[in-house]
Task: structure prediction
Amino acid sequence: MPTRSSEVIPSSPREIVITRVLDAPRELVWEAWTDPKQVAQWWGPVGFTATVHEMEVKPGGIWRLTMHGPDGADYPSESVFSEVVKPERIVFALRGGKEGAPESRIEMTWTFEDQGAMTRVTIRQVYPTAEARDHMATTYGAIEGGKQTLGRLAEHLTK
Amino acid sequence: MPTDPLSVTFRALADPTRRAMMARLARGEASMLELARPFKISQPAISKHVKVLEKSGLIVRRSLAQQRFCKLRAKPIEDAMDWMETQRKLLEGQMDKFEDYLKEIQKKGKKHAHS
Result:
Protein backbone atom coordinates (compact mmCIF):
# COMPACT_ATOMS: atom_id res chain seq x y z
CA MET A 1 0.00 0.00 0.00
CA PRO A 2 1.73 3.17 -1.08
CA THR A 3 1.69 5.92 1.52
CA ARG A 4 0.79 9.47 0.76
CA SER A 5 3.83 11.04 2.34
CA SER A 6 7.02 11.82 0.50
CA GLU A 7 10.56 11.28 1.57
CA VAL A 8 12.17 14.55 2.52
CA ILE A 9 15.80 14.70 1.54
CA PRO A 10 17.92 16.83 3.88
CA SER A 11 19.54 19.63 1.98
CA SER A 12 20.94 23.12 2.41
CA PRO A 13 18.81 25.77 4.14
CA ARG A 14 17.96 27.40 0.81
CA GLU A 15 16.77 24.23 -0.80
CA ILE A 16 13.85 21.88 -0.27
CA VAL A 17 13.65 18.49 -1.90
CA ILE A 18 10.85 15.96 -1.79
CA THR A 19 10.48 12.71 -3.65
CA ARG A 20 7.63 10.25 -4.10
CA VAL A 21 6.85 7.21 -6.22
CA LEU A 22 3.68 7.88 -8.22
CA ASP A 23 1.53 5.11 -9.65
CA ALA A 24 1.79 6.08 -13.32
CA PRO A 25 4.19 5.21 -16.14
CA ARG A 26 6.83 7.80 -16.95
CA GLU A 27 5.49 8.66 -20.43
CA LEU A 28 2.14 9.57 -18.88
CA VAL A 29 3.82 11.65 -16.17
CA TRP A 30 5.83 13.50 -18.81
CA GLU A 31 2.71 14.17 -20.89
CA ALA A 32 0.82 15.48 -17.86
CA TRP A 33 3.70 17.81 -17.06
CA THR A 34 4.37 19.20 -20.52
CA ASP A 35 0.87 19.57 -21.99
CA PRO A 36 -0.42 23.06 -21.03
CA LYS A 37 -4.04 21.87 -20.95
CA GLN A 38 -3.16 19.20 -18.42
CA VAL A 39 -0.86 21.43 -16.38
CA ALA A 40 -3.76 23.84 -15.78
CA GLN A 41 -5.58 21.01 -14.05
CA TRP A 42 -3.02 20.16 -11.38
CA TRP A 43 -0.45 22.95 -10.97
CA GLY A 44 -0.18 24.91 -7.73
CA PRO A 45 -0.65 24.41 -3.99
CA VAL A 46 -3.74 22.65 -2.65
CA GLY A 47 -6.84 24.83 -3.00
CA PHE A 48 -5.40 26.80 -5.93
CA THR A 49 -6.50 26.64 -9.55
CA ALA A 50 -4.34 27.67 -12.49
CA THR A 51 -4.65 29.29 -15.91
CA VAL A 52 -1.83 28.68 -18.37
CA HIS A 53 -1.38 31.63 -20.76
CA GLU A 54 1.67 30.40 -22.60
CA MET A 55 3.90 27.37 -22.20
CA GLU A 56 6.71 26.36 -24.46
CA VAL A 57 8.52 23.43 -22.89
CA LYS A 58 11.98 23.66 -24.42
CA PRO A 59 15.27 25.21 -23.29
CA GLY A 60 14.77 28.98 -23.28
CA GLY A 61 11.00 28.53 -23.61
CA ILE A 62 8.63 30.82 -21.67
CA TRP A 63 5.88 29.66 -19.36
CA ARG A 64 3.35 32.21 -18.12
CA LEU A 65 0.58 31.22 -15.78
CA THR A 66 -1.70 32.64 -13.11
CA MET A 67 -2.59 30.74 -9.99
CA HIS A 68 -5.89 31.61 -8.36
CA GLY A 69 -5.74 31.34 -4.58
CA PRO A 70 -8.55 30.14 -2.32
CA ASP A 71 -8.80 33.72 -0.99
CA GLY A 72 -9.59 35.04 -4.50
CA ALA A 73 -6.14 36.54 -4.99
CA ASP A 74 -4.22 35.99 -8.22
CA TYR A 75 -0.61 34.84 -8.34
CA PRO A 76 0.84 35.54 -11.78
CA SER A 77 4.22 34.07 -12.64
CA GLU A 78 6.63 33.81 -15.51
CA SER A 79 9.16 31.03 -15.86
CA VAL A 80 11.98 30.28 -18.24
CA PHE A 81 12.93 26.67 -18.90
CA SER A 82 16.66 26.11 -18.75
CA GLU A 83 16.74 22.35 -19.19
CA VAL A 84 14.23 20.01 -20.79
CA VAL A 85 15.38 16.40 -21.11
CA LYS A 86 12.51 14.18 -22.21
CA PRO A 87 11.32 12.16 -20.28
CA GLU A 88 13.71 12.64 -17.37
CA ARG A 89 14.19 16.18 -16.22
CA ILE A 90 12.82 19.71 -16.33
CA VAL A 91 14.56 22.75 -14.84
CA PHE A 92 13.11 26.25 -14.81
CA ALA A 93 13.47 29.59 -13.05
CA LEU A 94 10.25 31.11 -11.78
CA ARG A 95 9.46 34.72 -10.98
CA GLY A 96 6.14 35.59 -9.44
CA GLY A 97 3.92 35.71 -6.38
CA LYS A 98 0.81 37.33 -5.07
CA GLU A 99 -0.40 40.24 -7.18
CA GLY A 100 0.90 43.51 -5.73
CA ALA A 101 3.37 41.78 -3.39
CA PRO A 102 7.11 41.62 -4.06
CA GLU A 103 8.14 38.85 -6.44
CA SER A 104 9.70 35.57 -5.43
CA ARG A 105 12.39 33.87 -7.43
CA ILE A 106 12.70 30.15 -7.30
CA GLU A 107 14.56 27.59 -9.30
CA MET A 108 12.75 24.30 -9.62
CA THR A 109 13.98 20.96 -10.86
CA TRP A 110 11.60 18.07 -11.50
CA THR A 111 13.05 14.66 -12.23
CA PHE A 112 11.21 11.56 -13.33
CA GLU A 113 12.77 8.12 -12.84
CA ASP A 114 11.33 5.08 -14.51
CA GLN A 115 10.29 2.40 -12.01
CA GLY A 116 8.46 -0.03 -14.25
CA ALA A 117 4.77 0.86 -14.18
CA MET A 118 5.52 3.60 -11.69
CA THR A 119 7.61 6.76 -11.64
CA ARG A 120 9.72 8.34 -8.93
CA VAL A 121 9.07 12.07 -9.03
CA THR A 122 11.51 14.39 -7.25
CA ILE A 123 10.96 18.12 -6.81
CA ARG A 124 13.92 20.28 -5.86
CA GLN A 125 13.15 23.88 -5.02
CA VAL A 126 16.02 26.32 -4.61
CA TYR A 127 15.81 29.93 -3.49
CA PRO A 128 18.61 31.74 -5.33
CA THR A 129 18.99 34.30 -2.55
CA ALA A 130 17.98 34.70 1.06
CA GLU A 131 15.72 37.56 -0.05
CA ALA A 132 13.86 35.28 -2.45
CA ARG A 133 13.32 32.81 0.32
CA ASP A 134 11.98 35.53 2.63
CA HIS A 135 9.51 36.73 -0.01
CA MET A 136 8.25 33.20 -0.28
CA ALA A 137 7.83 33.11 3.50
CA THR A 138 5.82 36.32 3.40
CA THR A 139 3.67 35.26 0.48
CA TYR A 140 2.65 31.92 1.88
CA GLY A 141 3.41 32.76 5.50
CA ALA A 142 -0.15 32.25 6.68
CA ILE A 143 0.03 28.54 6.06
CA GLU A 144 0.60 26.78 9.32
CA GLY A 145 3.82 24.82 9.73
CA GLY A 146 4.49 21.96 12.13
CA LYS A 147 6.98 21.94 14.96
CA GLN A 148 10.23 20.09 14.54
CA THR A 149 12.28 18.55 17.26
CA LEU A 150 15.92 19.33 17.83
CA GLY A 151 16.72 15.69 17.26
CA ARG A 152 15.53 16.00 13.71
CA LEU A 153 17.58 19.12 13.30
CA ALA A 154 20.71 17.26 14.39
CA GLU A 155 19.93 14.63 11.79
CA HIS A 156 19.31 17.29 9.19
CA LEU A 157 22.57 19.06 9.91
CA THR A 158 24.88 16.06 10.01
CA LYS A 159 23.91 14.74 6.59
CA MET B 1 21.89 42.11 4.00
CA PRO B 2 18.48 41.27 5.49
CA THR B 3 18.48 41.31 9.28
CA ASP B 4 15.20 39.55 10.02
CA PRO B 5 15.60 36.56 12.36
CA LEU B 6 15.09 33.93 9.64
CA SER B 7 17.77 35.42 7.39
CA VAL B 8 20.20 35.69 10.31
CA THR B 9 19.61 32.04 11.22
CA PHE B 10 20.03 30.79 7.66
CA ARG B 11 23.21 32.83 7.18
CA ALA B 12 24.67 31.40 10.38
CA LEU B 13 23.84 27.90 9.17
CA ALA B 14 25.23 28.50 5.69
CA ASP B 15 28.63 27.12 6.68
CA PRO B 16 29.58 23.46 7.09
CA THR B 17 31.77 24.01 10.16
CA ARG B 18 29.04 25.90 11.96
CA ARG B 19 26.47 23.27 10.96
CA ALA B 20 28.72 20.55 12.38
CA MET B 21 29.07 22.58 15.60
CA MET B 22 25.29 22.94 15.82
CA ALA B 23 24.86 19.21 15.25
CA ARG B 24 27.25 18.54 18.12
CA LEU B 25 25.42 21.01 20.38
CA ALA B 26 22.07 19.47 19.49
CA ARG B 27 23.28 16.46 21.49
CA GLY B 28 23.99 18.65 24.54
CA GLU B 29 26.17 21.37 26.02
CA ALA B 30 29.89 21.24 25.14
CA SER B 31 33.06 23.01 26.22
CA MET B 32 34.91 25.11 23.66
CA LEU B 33 37.64 22.45 23.68
CA GLU B 34 35.22 19.66 22.85
CA LEU B 35 33.56 21.74 20.22
CA ALA B 36 36.88 22.49 18.48
CA ARG B 37 38.26 18.94 18.62
CA PRO B 38 36.84 17.49 15.36
CA PHE B 39 38.10 20.37 13.22
CA LYS B 40 41.51 20.84 11.66
CA ILE B 41 41.30 24.62 11.77
CA SER B 42 43.04 27.21 13.94
CA GLN B 43 41.77 28.31 17.34
CA PRO B 44 41.00 31.85 16.08
CA ALA B 45 38.92 30.35 13.23
CA ILE B 46 36.99 28.24 15.74
CA SER B 47 36.36 31.30 17.91
CA LYS B 48 35.13 33.22 14.90
CA HIS B 49 32.56 30.55 14.03
CA VAL B 50 31.40 30.32 17.64
CA LYS B 51 31.03 34.11 17.73
CA VAL B 52 28.85 34.06 14.60
CA LEU B 53 26.61 31.43 16.16
CA GLU B 54 26.42 33.41 19.40
CA LYS B 55 25.67 36.74 17.68
CA SER B 56 22.96 35.05 15.63
CA GLY B 57 21.33 33.88 18.84
CA LEU B 58 21.75 30.21 17.95
CA ILE B 59 23.92 29.45 20.98
CA VAL B 60 24.70 30.90 24.40
CA ARG B 61 28.05 30.75 26.17
CA ARG B 62 28.80 30.54 29.86
CA SER B 63 31.94 30.18 31.94
CA LEU B 64 32.32 27.48 34.53
CA ALA B 65 35.48 26.58 36.47
CA GLN B 66 37.68 28.54 34.03
CA GLN B 67 36.20 26.72 31.07
CA ARG B 68 33.78 28.10 28.53
CA PHE B 69 30.72 26.11 27.57
CA CYS B 70 28.36 26.47 24.63
CA LYS B 71 24.72 25.57 24.58
CA LEU B 72 22.18 25.56 21.80
CA ARG B 73 19.15 27.89 21.82
CA ALA B 74 16.13 26.11 20.45
CA LYS B 75 13.90 29.04 19.43
CA PRO B 76 15.59 30.33 16.23
CA ILE B 77 16.16 26.79 15.01
CA GLU B 78 12.53 25.91 15.62
CA ASP B 79 11.44 29.02 13.71
CA ALA B 80 13.68 28.10 10.77
CA MET B 81 12.44 24.51 10.83
CA ASP B 82 8.85 25.75 10.94
CA TRP B 83 9.48 27.80 7.87
CA MET B 84 11.04 24.86 6.04
CA GLU B 85 8.15 22.70 7.14
CA THR B 86 5.72 25.19 5.64
CA GLN B 87 7.63 25.13 2.36
CA ARG B 88 7.74 21.36 2.43
CA LYS B 89 3.98 21.20 2.98
CA LEU B 90 3.40 23.43 -0.03
CA LEU B 91 5.47 21.09 -2.17
CA GLU B 92 3.73 18.03 -0.71
CA GLY B 93 0.41 19.61 -1.64
CA GLN B 94 1.69 20.12 -5.16
CA MET B 95 2.77 16.48 -5.29
CA ASP B 96 -0.65 15.36 -3.95
CA LYS B 97 -2.41 17.27 -6.72
CA PHE B 98 -0.16 15.80 -9.37
CA GLU B 99 -0.69 12.30 -7.98
CA ASP B 100 -4.47 12.74 -7.88
CA TYR B 101 -4.52 14.07 -11.42
CA LEU B 102 -2.48 11.12 -12.73
CA LYS B 103 -4.81 8.68 -10.97
CA GLU B 104 -7.85 10.37 -12.45
CA ILE B 105 -6.66 10.35 -16.06
CA GLN B 106 -5.66 6.68 -15.79
CA LYS B 107 -9.13 5.80 -14.50
CA LYS B 108 -10.69 7.69 -17.41
CA GLY B 109 -8.32 5.98 -19.85
CA LYS B 110 -9.41 2.55 -18.60
CA LYS B 111 -13.09 3.49 -18.94
CA HIS B 112 -12.53 4.52 -22.55
CA ALA B 113 -10.70 1.30 -23.28
CA HIS B 114 -13.67 -0.75 -22.03
CA SER B 115 -16.43 1.17 -23.77
About this structure: Helices of chain B lie at 5-13, 16-25, 32-36, 43-55, 74-114. The mean pLDDT of chain B is 87. The two ends of chain B are 63 Å apart (CA to CA).
